[in-house]
Amino acid sequence: MEYLLEIPGRLDGLNSYTAANRTNPRKGGKVKHDNENKIIWCIRQQLNGVHIEKPVLIYYHFYEKDNRRDGDNILSCATKFIQDSLTKTHVLQEDNRKCIPHFYHDVSVDKENPRIEVTITELTPEQSKMTLKDLLKDLETG
């Protein structure tokens, strides 16, 4: 089974999250809380009632409004915030490597519609033990 979650706009990157934490730990906590609230709202609208018990592969496709932010700045916090939110809403049981053995990402530009598309694919126990390279080939042929 495959699920799609779309988050409009963009989330704070690692640079802004780090700066907020250096200013004041409460400010950093507010940044995380605000980002998670946005994600949780999207989860409740799009994945209401979904509870996945199998291991999953998560594919993140970030559509940025321009090329200004580095890929690692974008995905460092976003993947953390999204996976924590998926756990808080009980879509996923946990966000550990047993539940999420693999994830990967792409970054593109869409000036008109910046967003994050999160594709969650349930895996069999055998697939969860594969390398990402072999897993992607298996999913393509399966």
Could you explain the architecture of this structure?
- The structure is a single chain.
- A 4-stranded mixed sheet has the order 1-4-2-3, with helices on one face.
- It has 5 helices and 4 strands; from the N terminus they run E-H-H-E-H-E-E-H-H.
- It has 142 residues and is an alpha+beta fold.
- It is 45% helix and 23% strand.
- The longest helix is centred in the N-terminal third of the chain and has 22 residues.
- It is globular.
- Helix 1 crosses helix 2 and helix 2 crosses helix 3.
Write the layout of secondary structure elements.
Blueprint: E1 2-8, H1 14-23, H2 25-46, E2 56-64, H3 71-88, E3 102-109, E4 115-122, H4 125-128, H5 132-141
Helix pairs in contact: 1-2, 2-3
In helices, the fraction of residues equals: 40-55%
Strand order of the largest sheet: 1-4-2-3
The structure class reads: alpha+beta
- SSE topology string: EHHEHEEHH
| Percent strand | 15-25%
Terminus-to-terminus distance: 12 Å
User: What's the Cα radius of gyration?
Assistant: 15 Å
Keywords:
4-stranded mixed sheet; 142 residues; alpha+beta
Brief summary:
With 142 residues, the chain is of the alpha+beta class. Helix content is 45%, strand content 23%. The protein is built from 5 helices and 4 strands, in the order βααβαββαα.
